[in-house]
Amino acid sequence: MCGRYALFLNPELRDLFLEMQKNNQKFNTGEIFPTDKAPILMQEYNKLTPEAVKWGFPSYKGKSVIINARAETAPLKPMFRNCILSSRCIIPSSGFYEWSHDGKKTKYLFTLPKSSTLYMAGLFRKFGDETRFVILTTAANDSMAEVHNRMPVVLNRERMGYWVNDTTAALEILKETPPELMKTPEKDQNISNNKK
Which secondary structure element, helix H or strand E, spans residue 70, and what is its range? Predict the structure, then answer.
């Protein structure tokens, strides 16, 4: 699963941040927690448009939120089925966090080896007048498996357009093995969470 991720300003994301600030959109940076507002990219008027959206679909059980959807079963689940067909989004990040449980709890940041930005596949949906998003997860690859058996669906830049525009291609993307990631122990266990 993916329960926290990181979002730091870098040259690739600078224009995204500036566009959102120009439109007075408030969002969190640093370590992103469930229910935080964070940027997602949605297809609008034939271009990817950033929007500050809350992380997590409301749960049927009340107070908790659903933050992930399994790539293998999301197309079949009533909560996600229509989103897979028409409400796919991209979640920009610097990487995501996971904890190992081998005697002591170690927090790791997983990133792409040659990029400061990691794009995750997601779904969005309206609940009343509020839009929410979830992150799609898949079986962990070799770079992740010793820490956790699940990981986000990571999108290559070349596939981002297919993910949001083409349902057939999107369903194929969900079956692909994610790229190898780099694992770094996170020394600062309390990275600040800032609202822009």
Answer: strand 68-70
Report pLDDT digits (tens) over 65-78: 999 999 999 999 99
C-alpha to C-alpha distance for 73 and 25, rounded to whole angstroms: 33
Instruction: Tell me the C-alpha distance between 98 and 186, whole Å.
Output: 10
Q: How far apart are CA 160 and CA 90, in angstroms?
A: 7
Q: Is the pTM of this model over 0.90?
A: yes
**Exposure of 131 by Cβ count < 10 A (0-12 exposed, 13-18 middle, 19+ buried)?**
middle
Q: Any idea which residue has 């400061």 for tokens?
A: 116
The domain that holds 148 is classified in CATH as 3.90.1680.10
**Dihedral pair phi/psi, residue 106, rounded to 5°:** -110, 130
What are the tokens at 102?
A: 């081998």
- CA-to-CA separations, 32 to 5, 53, 62, in angstroms, rounded: 5, 12, 22
Reported as a single tens digit per residue, the pLDDT across 105-121 is 889 999 999 999 999 99
Beta bridge partners of 28: 195
Residue 170's domain comprises: 5-195
Q: Any idea what the Cα angle at residue 104 is, between residues 100 and 109, rounded to 5°?
A: 35
If one counts the domains in the chain, the total is: 1
Q: Which amino acid is at 88?
A: R
- Measured distance between the N- and C-terminal CA atoms of the chain, rounded to whole angstroms: 26
